[in-house]
Design a protein that fits this description.
Blueprint: H1 3-12, E1 17-23, E2 32-39, E3 43-49, E4 54-59, H2 61-74, E5 76-82, E6 86-92, E7 98-104, H3 130-134, H4 149-163, E8 175-180, H5 186-198, E9 203-209, H6 212-225, E10 230-234, E11 248-255, H7 258-268, E12 273-279, H8 283-287, H9 295-298, H10 300-321, E13 324-330, E14 341-347, H11 352-369, H12 374-384
Helix pairs in contact: 7-12, 10-11
């Protein structure tokens, strides 16, 4: 069988995950690609892994078939794929010889139409997790409510993003986590469960919000769950100061420049991990203007989206310039919410040249569009103090 015939047979088996590896050239930028099926209607997500970064893009079902064939013809020598019952391994030798092997998957999925349910999620179905029960995602027996499966997958996605970097935290001391703009604290409770119940870490968590009734309800819920190392405080992000050394900062959907203050505090505290999903980014949209690139200002919706993307790009670069390995990752699919970028930053050793370049890129963008981002101002004032 040639490659086309093998891939046609593979798609008939309805794979839900594929991994491309063994690049043809050492100069090829992506060491591997992981392709996950979001669902048959929405399509697929492609994760491209360099040595230090991950890039994401979405493709529909027709596109992904053509894309996979092109990648195996030009860039990769191996493809591993999983369907409901089998693992498929496609290998291409240097002289072009193709082999296709199949074996029974170690953990074969059960359901035929909802293959995403077979994934080994960190928050396992069948385990009674009280916050998920109260959120209506789990039944009292720990089963996923059918209509809430997308939300269950989104929550697991967030936990997976934390889990990828959890080893950056010290395991032999109390870890302090601050959640800025915690709101009803759904993810705060889930993160506490993950860190304390699953990872067995010694954790102190603080949720901060402006609404008194929200804080009161969150405290009541924490008491109900027995989460005695989780507290909630009433306060504003911009003026908050934590009495403890902070290891992790969470900021999910903090509005507009509130995200900048959350990131600023994280940098100021030298937090080891930062997870931020920005929201309602109006600041640069009001300021940006460019004679040379006036096309980006002409159409309101284009200007709005460009400003939002530039806001997060600037934030990512500023974190890099402050000594963080920073990624901008897709948090949830666009079909669920347009606010789908998560900033993940890990404090590490960043070469001075990389920090300088990141800052220069911000300066060039500021000069071109005439804006002044809040996070940049906060960091500059702090350095000048």
């Amino acid at each position: 069988m040639d490659l086309q015939q093998i891939l046609e047979a593979l798609w008939e088996a309805e794979p839900y995950k594929l991994i491309l590896s063994n690049p043809v050239s050492k100069q090829f930028p992506y060491q591997k690609m992981v392709i996950n099926c979001l669902n048959r209607e929405t399509g697929w997500q492609v994760e491209k892994y360099t040595q230090k970064q991950v890039f994401h893009e979405n493709k529909n079902t027709e596109e992904i078939q053509t894309y996979l064939k092109a990648e195996l013809e030009t860039d990769y020598r191996q493809c591993n794929a999983w369907d409901r019952e089998q693992e498929h391994t496609i290998r291409i030798s240097k002289n072009g010889r193709i082999t296709w092997q199949k074996r029974r998957a170690v953990q074969a999925p059960r359901a035929k139409t909802e293959h995403n349910r077979k994934k080994n999620y960190i928050l396992e179905e069948g385990t009674v997790i009280p916050p998920l029960v109260d959120m209506g995602i789990f039944t009292s027996e720990g089963r996923v409510v059918r209509s809430m499966y997308d939300k269950y997958r989104q929550i697991n996605r967030f936990v997976e993003m934390v889990d990828d970097e959890i080893n950056s935290l010290p395991g032999d001391q109390t870890i302090t986590v601050v959640d800025f703009g915690c709101g009803k604290s759904y993810l705060t409770f889930i993160l506490y469960y993950y860190l304390v119940e699953l990872k067995k870490l010694n954790v102190r968590m603080i949720g901060l919000d402006l609404k008194e009734d929200v804080i009161r309800n969150c405290r009541r819920a924490a008491q109900k769950y027995g989460y005695d190392r989780l507290d909630f405080e009433l306060g504003d992000i911009s003026g908050y100061d934590c009495p403890y050394p902070v290891d992790m900062v969470i900021s999910l959907h903090a509005c507009d420049t509130a995200t900048d203050y959350a990131l600023y505090h994280a940098v100021r505290w030298r937090a080891k991990l930062i997870f931020s999903v920005p929201c309602c980014q109006h600041e640069l949209n009001k300021q940006m203007k460019s004679e040379r690139l006036s096309i980006l200002n002409r159409y309101g919706i284009v200007k709005e989206r460009t400003a939002a993307l530039m806001t997060d790009a600037v934030r990512g670069n500023l974190l890099t310039s402050c000594g963080y390995r920073t990624q901008l990752l897709e948090f949830v699919d666009l079909s669920h919410t347009p606010k789908n970028i998560l900033i993940r930053a890990v404090r590490t050793v960043i070469p001075k040249s990389v920090q300088t370049k990141a800052l220069q890129e911000v300066e060039e963008l500021k000069k071109e569009f005439g804006f002044q981002p809040t996070l940049d101002e906060l960091l500059r004032k702090d350095k000048g103090a």
